[in-house]
Design brief:
By secondary structure, the chain is of the alpha+beta class. It has seven helices and 14 strands. One of its GO terms (molecular function) is metalloendopeptidase activity.
Length: 355
């Protein structure tokens, strides 16, 4: 099928000219100059690599439990995403969703969602998903999925499973989580390049595996993460519980999922783990009765251990969305003698601006 769609090119930009062969796929990777830094933009991975794959060259065999027919369908998903100039994270979300909906098979029957669900994405008969023939064509159905996904507001800051859920609703928004690691493995196998995508609990970000130092002020303090401020310190209606209560910290966008989190000042890590609400948390004691707390990281995003000595501006974590969170961000709290204070004026006095 899709005789005119050969030459899937799923990109991703690399540093250092080189020519690499992937014998199993007979795949040539032509690499350009050094990237400016991690990127999940159009056709790129966190490692900035560029890769090519032709569905007709997918070899026999299995990857992550998926056989040849399924891998060919994954290649068509990748091609559709590339043709829309999407980045590798978006493309991998497409592969993950097809895994969760059809196990990467073009099936001519519906699931629990209804008798008319069809194809790789179990799409139903409506204007968004096209005709029966469209839904049964892996390239066209993937293209329609990605076009709908591109309308999801703030998708770069959302977990992959939530992006998939908001694109074509599932009874369980977290249904697709279990397929993320396999999707990364399949995309990397078919392309022959390390995408830089994180896996494991909280996976879904794009990283080059390095840490980024923060900027330290003349007072020895640093901003805990990048802005803007998305929710200030003070009374508010909690977005999950709907209860009016004190928001005891300042929420920062942090640059989206896997953005760097920096220690606000020199100190010792006194807590690293998950609190009672499931928030991935790091607490740092700076002495003099001052403690700072950093919330919503995933397990893989907490880069220090209890007892570690940290320096102002040292990256101690990666922005996540664990616990009571509706999207990737950093909740930053400051405690003085055991009580929270507004972080904005606290850091302003120390020549550090938030947001």
């Amino acid at each position: 099928m899709n005789e005119n769609r050969n030459g899937v090119v799923v990109a991703v930009v690399v540093g250092a000219l080189a020519l690499v062969f992937l014998p199993a796929l007979a795949l040539l990777l032509l690499m350009g100059g050094p990237p400016e830094g991690p990127s999940c933009g159009p056709g790129t991975s966190g490692n900035g690599q560029t890769l090519s794959i032709d569905p007709d060259t997918v070899p026999e065999g299995t990857v992550a439990g998926y056989g040849h027919e399924q891998l060919v369908n994954a290649a068509y998903v990748m091609q559709a995403g590339k043709d829309l100039d999407l980045g590798v994270r978006d493309i991998t979300i497409g592969v993950m969703t097809a895994m969760g909906e059809s196990s990467l098979r073009v099936i001519d029957y519906g699931d629990a969602a209804g008798p008319d669900s069809r194809g790789l994405f179990q799409q139903r008969a409506n204007g968004a998903w096209g005709s029966y023939e469209d839904r049964m064509d892996p390239y066209i159905s993937s293209t329609n999925f990605f076009r709908a996904m591109m309308q999801v507001e703030g998708r770069d800051t959302l977990e992959p499973t939530i992006v998939a859920h908001r694109t074509q609703r599932n009874a369980d928004p977290y249904h697709y989580t279990r397929f993320w690691d396999a999707a990364v493995q399949v995309v990397e196998h078919l392309s022959g390049v390390d995408t830089g995508l994180t896996t494991g609990p909280g996976g879904g970000g794009c990283t080059d595996g390095t840490t980024t130092p923060g900027e330290v002020s003349m007072t020895g303090w640093a901003a805990p993460s990048a802005g803007p401020i998305t929710s200030p310190y003070g009374m508010r209606v909690h977005p999950i519980t709907g209860v009016l209560k004190l928001h005891d910290g300042t929420d920062l966008n942090g640059g989206g999922c896997n953005g760097p989190i920096w220690a606000a000042q020199d100190g010792v890590v006194v807590f690293r783990g998950f609190d009672g609400a499931g928030n991935g948390t790091i607490k740092v004691d700076h002495g003099g009765g001052v403690v700072t707390a950093y919330l919503h990281m995933y397990e893989s995003g907490m880069l220090v251990q209890e007892g570690d000595e940290v320096q102002a501006g040292q990256q101690i974590g990666k922005v996540g969305s664990s616990g009571w969170s509706t999207g990737c961000h950093l909740h930053f709290s400051v405690f003085v003698d055991g009580s929270t204070v507004d972080p904005v004026p606290f850091l302003t006095e120390r020549q550090v601006g938030l947001g």
